[in-house]
Amino acid sequence: xxxxxxxxxxxxxxxxxxxxxxxxxxxxxxxxxxxxxxxxxxxxxxxxxxxxxxxxxxxxxxxxxxxxxxxxxxxxxxxxxxxxxxxxxxxxxxxxxxxxxxxxxxxxxxxxxxxxxxxxxxxxxxxxxxxxxxxxxxxxxxxxxxxxxxxxxxxxxxxxxxxxxxxxxxxxxxxxxxxxxxxxxxxxxxxxxxxxxxxxxxxxxxxxxxxxxxxxxxxxxxxxxxxxxxxxxxxxxxxxxxxxxxxxxxxxxxxxxxxxxxxxxxxxxxxxxxxxxxxxxxxxxxxxxxxxxxxxxxxxxxxxxxxxxxxxxxxxxxxxxxxxxxxxxxxxxxxxxxxxxxxxxxxxxxxxxxxxxxxxxxxxxxxxxxxxxxxxxxxxxxxxxxxxxxxxxxxxxxxxxxxxxxxxxxxxxxxxxxxxxxxxxxxxxxxxxxxxxxxxxx
Length: 442
Hints:
By secondary structure, this protein is of the alpha+beta class. It has 16 helices and ten strands. Strand 1 (65-73) and strand 2 form a beta hairpin.
């Protein structure tokens, strides 16, 4: 099927965009227009706010917004907002929170809060010569040149922490970096970091052009390739953990506490040594993390990229969580690198984001880091608990039951029949269809 390219799509009104899409790609079917329209907010001002979050917006895409209660984190009780469409994520997190609430809850530690960015440049000169220039002239100039950019951040207790020259010429000819670390306090800090880095690039050019120790040929070789923050933040990291005596694990699946602890630790060890398992294992962790990240208006793509890069930091992709069962104590923890903010971006604009942050007690960025790590750990505990006892499908498919029934157009009365029917049975798609057809044939 061939379509005609369009010029000036972004300049069309929202209605114009929709009309063009439906006519060009959807055979003029008005049903599709109605689908888009029914997801608009009735409040025109609120809809306009949502329209302006991004470009070429034509509607809103809803995700379920749920609550996972009973999270005891560092002695405080929380109800976590979770925006997620996958069945059983909120249920698993809630069940894990309830499991640990009478065992001391979750404990967290902020290990570090440094964020990173780089000016990547090419410069054909001797490395020691550039290093001398950096140490005795350039570094000071970089701090001075960004003083106006960093003033407000420094007043809040943050700013540029350190700037280093990194020699990467062994990996790529004439390739160097200005590597800077930042503290952005309660903001995620992407715009702040990138503004500083772009000034680094300008200052680097200016100072090298004025430096008498470099030849004209060397000066002409300078290329500032790009100035950009890194979403890999191995020094912006939080630890969340749970622990108790093995005798207090009290799992209700029918296996002993000792057997549960042994199998649970084996499952974590498998994820530590086997990348195929680790990928799914860490995906489950990020189910919990991302759901709260989205609900609080942060960048889940950045948190995902950072977590997976960190999982591979030792040269092999591995588990983000770890477990020990030494001296009769069960201990389960996660070290999560994560960069989030509670000011700026959507946090001051999106009504549900503001609700989420209020629900969490208007946390600082560090407090939100702790909450996110706990959410990921709880989700992982819930998944592993099911895997080593009843199996993952029993609980997952029970939660998925209503999705199947909705696809089949079941009535509320029929849904209640299925809840009763599967009370003592494992839900399977095949069995749902068989029972649905039997019920309808009566």
